[in-house]
Structures are given as structure tokens and as C-alpha cells.
Amino acid sequence: MKQGNVKEMGPILGIEGGGTKTSWIFVGVRGRVLAQGNVGPTHVMLVGEKGLREAFGKIAKNLPMPPWAIGGGFAGARGKPEMDTVRKALRAVWPGTRHLAVGQDTDCALAAAWGEEDGFLIIAGTGSNVIGRKGKNRLSAGGHGHLLGDAGSGYDIVQRAMEAVFRARDKGDPASLLVAGLLAHAGAADLDRLLREFYRPHGKEWVAAFAPVILRAADRGDRVAREAIRAGTAELAERAAELAKRMGVRAPRFSLTGGLFENSFYRTTLLRELRRVCPQATGTVLSVPGAIGAARMAGLVSEVESVKESAAEKGVDVQALPTERANPRSRRLHRKSVAQLVRLFVREEAQTGRALRKAGGEITRAANLVAKALKKGGRLFYVGAGTSGRLGVLDASEMPPTFHAPPEQVQAILAGGPEAIFRAQEGAEDDAEAGRRSVKERGVGKRDVLVGLTASGRTPFVHGALAEGKQRGAETVLVTAHPRWRPEPGGIHPQAVVRLDVGPELIAGSTRMKAGTATKVVCNTLSSVAMIRLGRVHDNLMVHVVPSNEKLRARAIRLVRMLTGVDGPAAVSALQAAQGRVMGAVERLKLSRLRKKGGRPRSRG
Question: Is residue 8 flagged as an active site residue?
Fold first, then answer.
């Protein structure tokens, strides 16, 4: 089929299917973009035909008309069986489509870079790969996975840097600047703890997530980081040159794509190594999105207009959010003394107390929902992103040691996963589909309750999670610092909404301040009220504390002595017999005392 026949034939849908996210674009006459968006993963071998149909169905709901042709490249589509599965799913959703062009996800990048022309592609992200096309001949080098050495990939440079860091320590060399960055990223106290963390069963994405630390250290001139990048890019460049030689191309044109090429040191190092092994090679960073390449795969369109944000993708006016307003009381902060700043910050926190009192009725309704759910054997899930999400993690993590609650009883769902606790995960909070998946994969049901934490009230990840939770019958709560938050048509409708009117922050938009403080108090209240109603507090004492360290062991002994009047050695002995459970020790001592008096224990029936 010839390019340029779109007008006579109809619109084209381009789909770039990845293992974590699928991008799509709908192209009309003369390459005009009609719609675009993202859905969840479409890795063929992981989601199967059913998962593909679900993802394609979500795309179909956003199209103004059925596509005349579809071009798509999908992760995991390694051979004919997987390609047939994709075609079957596409036909099931769009039975009237006249033309299908299906390939691997790398085909999208090739088409985005070169259209139907010959050329080469170097991919460097979590993994790495080199692909070349000359006429009908298409070959690749690398891309065999992290265990077989994806040279120059994020995983590879992290592994090289880590090996160098521990080799330097073994030699007694001073720690490089890189070490502090690695420890901060992992939240580890020292290198031994970092090593233990590396040997836990994490996926390759977890290891590759350390790559930005290596890249930042290289930008600052760290020798270990730079050497890891040089070694990785040198091997990747050699593979690229070998592939060009194998295909008989003396002056290959390389398009560079993948997250690592966003870093200037990595990019310039790779290009330098490429010219060293193949002096006539040229390389430029690919700027065309893979979804456009997918549309080009259909062979019907050569050019697509500049991508514009569709109405469906537009967010709200951020400047209009209460959390983004400038605070008149904090003008000229940069000119104030330390003492003036401290007084201002302490005085401003008074707004938090007023906001909590004003929202007392809403907090009560939310607390009732949480307590009832847990009393029925359900679970509490905090869902959030950024500061709000981390506050949920903090509260959930305190439940086992404070109340001896099972870890699964109160859980936190944080956009971006555990890595987001210590550093921001770009784009994680904007992924509503990821929020839905997180709820679905935890098997949230009718007995559970989801508490969405979002200072702005609009975080897509939270909205997606709450929408999925409500659809599955769970109770839903929204906690926000947007005092005028109201449900939007077609949006979420939580059973309870807690609106915290803390006013603008002293530093505009920094919701880790008053909004964060108020949110933390709400989380404290919801979980603590539920635990009290479950009988995990006696009087005002933390009688279900888990004595896991010296301070908590001393507290447990003190509680046993307070509740029974025995001395220290007797309390210690009773606690040991009760395996550290305070109330178990108290019951033992009371029973022993009753037996000594000749009495009988009261029946619990």
C-alpha cells in the first residue's frame, strides 16, 4: 500500500505496547492527531489475549470512530504465535478494520526513527538492544536480557558501579561520592545493608532504578560512576559497530532512544565510543514518540503533525488549586532571619488545628467506615502519591509494632512503588490505570475500605484506585486539602470526603507542610480509632505493643507492672512465658494470683 492514501482510506490507530504502559495515537486525514492516550501493559506473554482485549477495549472507548487501519508493536511479541494472539485480540475489538500491521515494540521505534528507510537503532533503558534494517534484512545485537549482559543498559551500569564500589571498599580506598547517593536511594544505613537489599528477590527494574544515581554522580565528576558508564557504553558501541559491519553498512546512521540518552554524559560517551569503533557512524536522539512509529507501521501515513494534548489528557488548572496559592503571610521569605522564619512556621501550624476541628464531622464519618470495615474482617488501604502517599506508608507500617495488627490488615499503596518512598517517581501519580491495577491485584473487595490521600484532590493514580475499589464493592474515602472539592460528572464519588482547609502553604505548593501535617493527623485518627474499636487498647495503654527493641521491651514490662502491681522480675518472667504479649502476661499473673487465693477463674462463656 502506498503512503499518503489516508484521505481515501480512513484513520489509523498506532499502538506502542509495553510491559508497564501502552501508548496510542489516532491519526486522521493528512496526519492530523484526533486522539491519544495511555492504558496499562500489553506485554503479550504476560497479559495474554484476555489482557490485550481489555486494554484495546479501553482505547476503543476514547476513539471518535473505528480505525480503518492499525499499526502496533508489542513487548513480548517474539514470534508468530504471539503476533497471531495480538491480531486476534485486535480483530475482536475492531472487527471492521481493513488493515493490520503487527510487530515487536522495537518495530515502533524503528518506524518512528526511519519510517520505511534503512537505518539503525540503539535502545538504552532498563535493558539495551541494537537493531538494524537494510532493505528486507532486519537484524539485532544484544537484547538478550540482564542475565546475559544487556551492555550499557541501566541494569548493566548499576551492576558495574556496585562492583567497583565494593572492590574499592575491599582495598580500603576512601568512599566515592557515589556511595552516599546509592545509600540514600536504597534508604540503607551502610554498604552491608545495601548489599543485603541487593540480594533480596527484586526484579531487574528495581536494580535499574539506581541508574539515575549513577548518572547524577557522573555529572558531578565521580570517577567510579564515569568508569561504569564508559565500560558499558564501550561494549554497547562495539555491538552496534559489529551489527553494521555484519549488514555491510560502512556509514551507519543510528537513532538513539531510551531513558539513559536523556543524560548528557551518557549520550556523549556513547557517541564518542561509537565513533571510536566506527568512525563514519552518526547518531541522533530520537524525538518522535513510539506511538507515531506504530501508526507509520501501517504503511499508510508518512508524516504526523506535532502531537497536541487532547482534551482527555488535559489536567485541571494547577494554579487554581488552593494548595498552589501564594501565602500573603510568607512574602519575602528569603529576606527573613532564621528566628523570624521559625516563628512564622510555628505560628502557621495553628491553621492545621482549625482545619481539623472544622472537618471533625467528616473525619467521624470516615472513621466509622474504617472501624466497621476492620471489625468485619476487612482491610484498610491507604492510596496516595508523593507526600500524601508516604504518610499512608508511615501509618500502615506503624500498625504491627504498635497494635500487633497483622501486616495485611492495614496496607499502603504508593504510586511508583517502594522506590517512591525515598525519591519521586516521574509520572507515577498521573497513571490512573496503575491505580486501578494496584487495587485489582490486591483483591480488594466488599469488606475492605480504601482511603485516598491527595492534597490537591485530583491525583489520577488515587482517582483510578478509588474508582476500581468502589466498582469492586469496597468503601471509599477521600482525604484532601481542597476545601471546595466536589465530585465531577463521570468522576469518583467516595462514601466519605474529608476536606482540610489549611489555607495556602508558606512555600506555595509545598503540601508536605500544613496539608501533610493535617493528613497525618487524619491517618492517625482513622487507624487508631479502628484499633481501639477492635479492642487493641486497654484504657489509654498500648497493651498490644510488640517488644522488638530495648525501649519497647521496657515499655512492655512497665505496662505489665502497672496493670498487675508485680515487681520487675515477675513481669519479665510473665512476658517471657507469654512470648512478649502484654495482655497474655497480665492474664497469666491474674490467674496465678487467683489460684493462690483458692479462687476459680471466671468463665468466659
Answer: no
Tell whether 83 and 130 lie within a shared domain. no
- 573-589 per-residue burial string, b: 16 or more CB within 10 A, e: under 16: ebbeebebbbbbbbebb
Most confident option among 95-109, 440-454, 541-555: 440-454
* DSSP for 471-506, written as a single string: HTT-EEEEEES-TT--PPTTS---SEEEE----S-S
Return the C-alpha cell found at 94.
475492531
Query: Is residue 371 located within the same domain as residue 471?
Result: yes
Give a yes or no: residue 412 inside a domain: yes
- On whether the CB atoms of residues 281 and 251 are closer than 8 A, the answer is yes
* CATH number of the domain within which 108 lies: 3.30.420.40
Q: Three-class SS of residue 42?
A: coil
Interval 434-445: pLDDT, tens: 899 899 889 999
Q: How far apart are the first and last CA of the chain?
A: 82
Cβ within 8 Å of residue 473, ≥6 positions away: 445, 446
Among residues 54, 242, 398, 587, the one annotated as catalytic is: 398
Residue 318 pLDDT level (bands cut at 50, 70, 90): low
Q: Where are the alpha helices (DSSP H) in 299-405?
A: 338-348, 350-358, 360-375, 386-403
Return d(Cα 43, Cα 23) in angstroms, integer. 12
Q: Which of 273, 429, 433, 505 is catalytic?
A: 429
For residue 429, indicate whether it is catalytic.
yes
What's the pLDDT at 43?
87
Q: Does residue 382 share a domain with residue 520?
A: yes
Q: 367 to each of 109, 198, 411, 475, how far by Cα in Å?
A: 50, 39, 16, 12
Q: 563 and 512, same structural domain?
A: no
In the chain, the percentage of residues whose pLDDT exceeds 90 is: 48
Is residue 516 located within the same domain as residue 558?
no
Query: Are residues 139 and 34 located together in one domain of the fold?
Result: no
